[in-house]
Amino acid sequence: MKIIILGAGQVGGSLAEHLASEANDITVIDTNEVRLRELRDRIDIGVVTGEGSHPDILVQGGIEDADLLVAVTSNDEINMVACQIAHSLFRTPTKIARVRSNAYLTYDKLFTESAIPIDVLISPEQLVSDYISRLIDQPGALQVLDFAEGKAQLVAVKAYHGGPLVGQELRFLRKHMPNVDTRVAAIYRRNRAIMPTGSTLIEADDEVFFIAAKADIRAVMSELRRLETAYKRIMIAGGGNIGLRLAKKLEGRYNVRVIEQNKLRCKGLSEQLERSIVLQGNASDQDLLLDENIEDTDVFLALTNDDEANIMSSMLAKRLGARKVMALINNPAYVDLVQGGEIDIAISPQTTTIGSLLTHVRRGDMVNVHSLRRGAAEAIELIAHGDSQSSKVVGRALEDIDLPEGANIGAIVREGEDGSEVLIAHDHLVVEPGDHVIVFLLQKQHIRDLEKLFQVGFTFF
Questions:
Q1: Residues forming a β-bridge with 299
Q2: Tens of pLDDT along 395-450?
Q3: What's the pLDDT tens digit per position in 235-255?
Q4: Residues 314, 319, 321, 326: what is their CA dihedral angle, to the nearest 10 degrees?
Q5: Distance between CA atoms of residues 184 and 189, nearest Å
Q6: Please, are residues 337 and 429 in contact by the beta-carbon 8 Å criterion?
Q7: CA-CA distances (angstroms) from residue 17 to 25, 155, 286?
Q8: CA–CA dist 408, 185 (Å, integer)
């Protein structure tokens, strides 16, 4: 596939790395020549220096026969204009754009073929705020990923000393919970992936990824660690787009405080939020945090655009007694360094956004792609099409499907007359047409094999 990416920043650069490793023809366009050179030295791609919304620059990048344009510069207007030009002048088949401003996103009719022809809108702020909201709804989870519109969830937790299953084999999970069905998709031990079997022994500090129906998540978590009580009091440091979106999402269910330095922004936040308390000040101010009873805060969220400020305020909040601290970390090199110490969870906007982009770029009918472990692993939701003659998965029991190395099926979500049903993967389960199949892929280099497995033959048509 020939793909043009506008923007060589963290999202554009990471996307180029993912897609170049999957045998795509990639060209990246950016005004920053130094950043382009660094990318080209690291991966086998083409680069063009210039403004991505200019037709002549797009032509240099090969827009005339491109299959896909992905506009992810930091400027909404450049992204939108580039998609308009790609459509009007070059009839580019698929156009994806990152649009951050609510001023545009609130008007659905704006992004149509007769107006601004963008096929897929990506809003990092929306993706990140939804992700954080899921973490808050499942206290104790390191990651919470939705599948089939939230009916099934993949959750990562750290196994703690004292958990009922710690020191036991995975096959005892069913004995502990005879009325709850779940499957452990992967275990990371000292940053190494382990493909779990029934005889795999769970150790303390293992990072365990399991999949279950949303209603069963808490029960499974209780087998691996002491359950945390539900959060009530949330403090958000940073009233930018993510902070505002998250406060709006949470204020109906939680006691929310937002700390913002800019006086004018504070006024705007107060006008847009109904129940949240908005405070002007610096989240690294110890006196301010103490005055706001930081020791009674369940979750402290540092969501400014400054990684260092987020790290400092999170560490301070933790030392002053905040129960859980989460920090937005834009530089991917920092994520693994800071998580797990005084900072409980480091949130990478880049990882969250990449997964959403890959959903629309990959071949095959993919509904969700979640990039995990800095892109080393992926959790993917695919729809099975065809029949037993045209498909390599439909009509076959899971034990008979020839999955790529490092892949395992965690669950199937099946639509029935009475609604959706979450079916946890067992060897005898047979895949039916229209099933949403959730696959955990430990080795991303096998993604093409997985795509081919779910493609239907010509007999289907």
A1: 234, 324
A2: 999 999 999 988 999 999 998 777 788 999 999 999 999 999 999 988 777 888 88
A3: 999 999 899 999 999 999 999
A4: 20
A5: 14
A6: no
A7: 11, 26, 41
A8: 7
What pLDDT does residue 246 have? Answer: 95
| DSSP symbols for 191-233 | TEEE---TTPBP-TT-EEEEEEEGGGHHHHHHHHSPPPPPP-E
Residues 46-65 have pLDDT tens digits of 999 999 999 999 999 999 99
Instruction: Quote the tokens at residue 131.
Output: 């992700």
CA gyration radius, the chain: 23
Distance between CA atoms of residues 261 and 246, nearest Å: 18
Strand, coil or helix: 151 = coil
**Overall residue count recorded for the chain in this entry:** 461
- Name the packing angle between helices 241-250 and 124-137 (round to 10°): 40
Distance in angstroms (rounded) separating the CA atoms of residues 220 and 164: 11
CB within 8 Å of 293: residues ≥ 6 apart: none
Q: Long-range contact list for 19-28, CB < 8 A, 24+ apart?
A: 19/361, 20/44, 20/45, 21/444, 21/445, 22/447, 22/448, 23/448, 25/1, 27/2, 27/3, 27/61, 27/62, 28/4
CA separation for the pair 435, 385 (Å, rounded)? 8
How far is Cα 308 from Cα 315, in angstroms, rounded to an integer? 11
Secondary structure in 3-state letters for 378-395:
EEEEEECCCCCCCCCCCC
Which DSSP state fits 101? -
Q: Which long-range contacts (CB under 8 A, 24 or more apart) does 222-225 make?
A: 222/164, 223/163, 223/164, 223/165, 223/173, 223/176, 223/177, 224/157, 224/159, 224/160, 224/163, 224/165, 224/166, 225/140, 225/157, 225/158, 225/159, 225/160, 225/163
Cα-flanking dihedrals φ and ψ of residue 299, to 5°?
A: -135, 125
CB-based burial, 385-402: b 16+ in 10 Å, e otherwise: bbeeebbbbbbbebeeee
Rounded Cα gap, residues 270 and 258, in angstroms: 10
Residue 121 and residue 337 in contact, taking contact as beta carbons nearer than 8 Å:
no
Give one word for 7, left, alpha or beta, with left for phi > 0 and alpha for psi -120 to 50. Answer: left
The tokens 């992810």 sit on which residue? Answer: 72
Give the amino acid at 149: E
Please work out, in degrees rounded to the nearest 5, the angle formed at the alpha carbon of residue 7 by the alpha carbons of 244 and 260: 20
